Structure of Succinyldiaminopimelate transaminase:
Amino acid sequence: MNPGFADLQPYPFERLRGLLADVRHGGGLPLIDLSIGEPRHAPPALVRSALIDNLDGLGRYPKTAGSDELRAAIAGWLVRRHGLPEGAVDPARQVLPASGTREALFAIAQCVVDRAPGARVAMPNPFYQIYEGAALLAGARPLYIPCAAAAGYQPDFDAVPPAVWRDVQLLYICSPHNPTGRVLTLDQLEHLVELAQRHDFVIASDECYSEIYPDDAAPPAGILAACRALGLDGFDRCLVFQSLSKRSSVPGLRSGFVAGDARLIERFLLYRTYHGCALPEYVQAASAAAWRDEAHVAASRAIYRRKLAAAVQALGARVALPQGGFCLWLPVPGGDDPAFTRSLYADHHLRVLPGSYLARADGGVNPGAGHVRLALVADEAACAQAMTRLAAALND
């Protein structure tokens, strides 16, 4: 067996099930589940129509590289979204469809890590657990970069010594960050791109929350825009990972993409050809329709804004609006996040995720401890009720 299995830790939701297994709610309140970031807004009608209209694709094997139509739709979206020059993204060489970001973020480590002794894969801490599992199963050692409260939950990349960067083969970043909701500025992204060129590592930029943000005039910056600002028109050593799950409220479609450095895309396509994970043709057609449309994204973003504003109104100064995404990163009274999670479930029938389950203790400190993550994915009425219950719990 792959020796990396020995180092894998239970997935956060498996741990949550164990934490709550013996807890019973006796108050008669309906359960409101804010533990998992599964969007529940209505899927766009145009996606449904495209799926139905292309079911004849069931009779054909899809191409791993995807259709010309889908790659062109993705390239066009990237150009529009990030203010890139027309033609800046080559749909034939710099875009590859994927089965959502989760699958692709895991697979890229298997593709680019060379398993040399001492190989490291860097990631913010707390983090999306796929990053760690991908590193371990690729034969690398994780490098955890803390996102501490004292630093405004921003990862301290400058604390990593140059000698350590030289062992890094892959850096995962996530902006807006899951779970804290913090956003990396364009200057920060440019700095990371410069580090990647200097120390010869790949950046995997997880931007799946990038289309949920508070100000229409200030969308979060992306890694491809940072490359262009530095004159790296080929997006050297940089890949962006994006999904329709959050943007278009279709997590069950399992559709996303990776785009950037053509040399990396070429090798990743070869890997994925053997891996066998091509998107069905009807999914590709529905995905192309979604990437070409922004109206449904703006409508969904407005709903999230209302839910987040209602949360701040109910909780006051105890919580801050995320700079992006739909999660609240809430400090808990007493600092014991598993105990607070149990009490919320028992007394108020709210299911949330302990922050310590999303991070690793490094140097004796778990930067997720003392927090819980709340994903505001339920409908507006349920989210408002959840915030009322949460405010009561915080006042107990």
Q: What stands out?
A: The chain has a mean pLDDT of 96. Residues 208 and 242 are 5 Å apart (CA to CA). The chain is about 40% helix and 15% strand.
